[in-house]
Amino acid sequence: APSIVWFRDDLRVADHPALAAAVERGAPVVCVYVLDEESPGIRPLGGAAKWWLNGSLTALGAALDGLGARLVLRRGPAARVIRSLVDETGAGAVFWNRRYGGPERRLDAELKQAFRDDGLIVQSFAANLLFEPWTIRTGQGTPFSVFTPFWRACMHAPEPRHPLPAPEKIEPTDVATERLDDWSLLPTRPDWAAGLREAWSPGAVAAHERLRGFLADDLADYADGRDRPARSATSRLSPHLRWGELSPHEVWHAMRQRRVHGEGANRFRTELGWREFAWHVLFHAPELATTNWRGEFDAFPWPRLHPAALRAWEEGRTGVPLVDAGMRELWATGTMHNRVRMVVASFLTKNLLIDWRRGEQWFWDTLVDADAASNPFNWQWVAGSGADAAPYFRVFNPELQATKFDPDGEYVRRWVAEIGTDEYPEPIVDLKQTRAAALAAYEHVKAAA
Ligand code: FAD
């Protein structure tokens, strides 16, 4: 009886433990991806994410073709789809790599139990994090809430395993697939994805090329250059990691193999650590996208939403150059430099006093790397309500940030061509006054703590 491999956020054929296990089992393999927009709690993908997914599934399909197999596409509530695929194919085993979000874990656990009750082989594997969330604990056995000791504990844990090679060949099955085009993942009217196409190539081949290029050419400048949005000093691997086109183990061991060291390498490894931390925090606090991680922030008196201010922020028309540059980069390319993400998030939550959840949702819709952990985790980090967060009273001053990190104004000019002309708007808020108002509002949180 064939094996089913259910692909999720792991759109690759190398270092894919579930696929490796299915091949090892020796029967034909059904490789399936399910577009699930119906199961309760599963957050529907944003527009930029759908664009990426379309490219990534195309690339995965080609990779599987090359191994003699094919990618089967199905749409619907995942549990029902996988069950009917088992019935349709008479499969004897189902394999997948683990997910760590709350609703996903529930769904997977229920399905696993049901299949086991039916006598099927079901196995799930560690594939997308370097350390499984339940293995990294404080001395008291609780999850970490502060990054530095968390990462220190990770560094004392057994080293992440070596990546697995891609299978040489996969025994195919003849199972009907839906057509990717019928899923309409790409924008049409209007087609806003020209900038995304220019900026990105989804898929594992491009991901590995990027990793090689980064380690060879850019890592040495990473520690210095990573905060400069005008430079391309960072890896730009985040969407590839988000979709699992590249595993963190592959990144980890590529660094080992190349024997990269020094400040850049340490810094970069630490950033991978922040990715781990965000997922571990989500694992222990599944409501991270909707609920303040620090409960006392529930007392924060968000004023009534000013829709025009939110729109100006989304469209990059706030009159604050670094904020507008970032928001326009995001809209055009589906990404934004990390330093600028922090600045625009601080501006939204502190100068505009708009609830961080509004910003998180906009990023969810527009980022190609938006994921269920890093996005809410970082929003809460900036807002002050999150794990190991920046203290609330740290209000980024976008003008000082620009002077420090974009001293020649190169990044701002790239995205705000009309700067310095009459066309560019006046700032929609006074930075100093709004900062003071934010600090006054924060008193409520302090009182609730
Ligand atoms: P590099 O500097 O090359 O870092 C290497 C890798 O480390 C990244 O690819 C990423 O996987 C990881 N990483 C780096 N910084 C962080 C971080 N702070 N948190 C978690 N992982 C990190 N990152 C996402 O992957 N998805 C998101 O949805 C996301 N939303 C964010 C929202 C806000 C408000 C902020 C301030 C940051 C957010 N980040 C998010 C983190 C960070 O901005 C991006 O990971 C980074 O800009 C990606 O660029 P890079 O791959 O060149 O990063």
UniProtKB/TrEMBL annotation:
Organism this protein belongs to: Agromyces humatus
Membership in a protein family: Belongs to the DNA photolyase family.
InterPro entries: Crypto/Photolyase_FAD-like_sf, Crypto/Photolyase_N_sf, Cryptochr/Photolyase_FAD-bd, Cryptochrome/DNA_photolyase_1, DNA_photolyase_1_CS_C, DNA_photolyase_N, Rossmann-like_a/b/a_fold
Keywords (A to Z) from UniProt: Chromophore, FAD, Flavoprotein
Pfam families per the UniProt record, alphabetical: DNA_photolyase, FAD_binding_7
PROSITE patterns per the UniProt record, alphabetical: DNA_PHOTOLYASES_1_1, DNA_PHOTOLYASES_1_2, PHR_CRY_ALPHA_BETA
Every Photolyase/cryptochrome alpha/beta domain range: 1-130
SUPFAM superfamilies: Cryptochrome/photolyase FAD-binding domain, Cryptochrome/photolyase, N-terminal domain
Name of the protein in question: Deoxyribodipyrimidine photo-lyase
Cofactor list: FAD
